[in-house]
Design a protein that fits this description.
The protein has one domain: Beta Barrel (Porin). It is built from one helix and 20 strands. Strands 1-4-5-7-8-9-10-15-16-17-18-20 form a twelve-stranded antiparallel barrel. The termini are far apart.
Length: 312
């Protein structure tokens, strides 16, 4: 069985451990929560693929069929001030292959926490420009197995990331761009040796760091947000999957995705919004060509109870 299909699952799980793809005042959008406002909720999603890139070679694998990951993720964003937000998320994931003998896995993955700070604001003509910095990290909360791809629920590394973001809004139209660098710790696997491009007589795997880029264009008015998303990630090192071989946590991974996000206020609920998201992988390396969707509900509340909540 050619586990290389796992690459798409890896990027899905990787995205979940850092940020949700759907829009709900996350660490990848240009929106800030107001002081003492809390936005919290749950996202549900599914990612699936049948074809993948084995290195740069595009293929399928009848021994795995369709590989899928179903997820539920709790998220919260709290406004300490109008310019400083704290964001946390924890996903639960279940994996499955429609063919073959591999048994899927399920469980809680990685707890992520990030601080989001708006350090620059200026109006240039009719355009409102903001500069935002984010630092954060994630740690596994269960002892799940990483060396079981494509059906592992995560990579089991401890991660630290820094993101720089620029947001510009003209009337109700906006554009947001960001770049992120993530450092990943070594991973311990349940064998005493393994082969990459050379033999390693250890159970520790050095994980390559990751660059990520994100661009968004759309429309936002109050709690209504509609946007198109471009997302790109690639590891800083690693190796290609060998022909008909299994993937490995430290493989070289690249993925380019396109998607649509929507945040729609639910009428007469005073703070409840519906979140919708769809993403498609359009290019990759050691990665599955995945289609994914997410939906969920988020509630915006003023914790101080003095005024009604809002987005700054």
């Amino acid at each position: 069985m050619n586990l290389p299909l796992t690459k798409r699952l890896k990027v899905s799980l990787f995205s979940l451990c850092v940020t949700a793809s759907a829009l709900a005042q996350t660490d990848v959008d240009g929106i800030m929560m107001g002081r003492k406002n809390l936005c919290s909720g749950v996202l549900f999603g599914r990612s699936a693929w049948t074809h993948y890139w084995e290195g740069t070679f595009y293929r399928d694998n009848k021994n795995l069929g369709t590989v899928s990951a179903t997820s539920a993720m709790a998220m919260a964003n709290y406004g300490i001030t109008d310019k400083l937000n704290i964001i946390a998320g924890l996903p639960w994931i279940r994996t499955k292959a429609s063919a073959g003998t591999m048994i899927g896995r399920e469980g809680f993955q990685d707890l992520s926490v990030a601080a989001k700070y708006k350090f620059y604001t200026r109006t240039i003509g009719a355009v409102d420009v903001s500069g935002i910095g984010i630092i954060g990290g994630s740690v596994p909360v269960t002892n799940y197995v990483a060396d079981y791809l494509p059906l592992a629920i995560g990579m089991h590394s401890k991660n630290a990331m820094a993101r720089l973001m620029a947001d510009a809004e003209w009337k109700h139209f906006f554009g947001t761009i960001s770049g992120t660098y993530m450092v990943r710790s070594n991973v311990k696997i349940d064998r005493n040796s393994y082969y990459t491009n050379e033999m390693h007589y250890t159970n520790l795997v050095a994980m390559p760091d990751v660059w990520m880029w994100n661009a968004r264009l759309g429309y936002r008015k109050g709690d209504l947000i509609l946007e198109a998303v471009f997302d790109r990630m690639n590891t800083q090192g690693g190796f290609d999957i060998r022909k008909n071989d299994m993937p490995f946590p430290s493989n070289n991974m690249e993925a380019t995705r396109l998607g649509l996000n929507a945040k729609i206020p639910v009428p007469k609920t005073n703070g409840l919004s519906l979140i919708l998201n769809g993403m498609q992988t359009v290019a990759g390396r050691n990665m599955g060509k995945s289609s994914s969707w997410m939906f969920g509900f988020f509630y915006l509340a003023d914790v101080s109870k003095k005024t009604k909540g809002g987005i700054k």
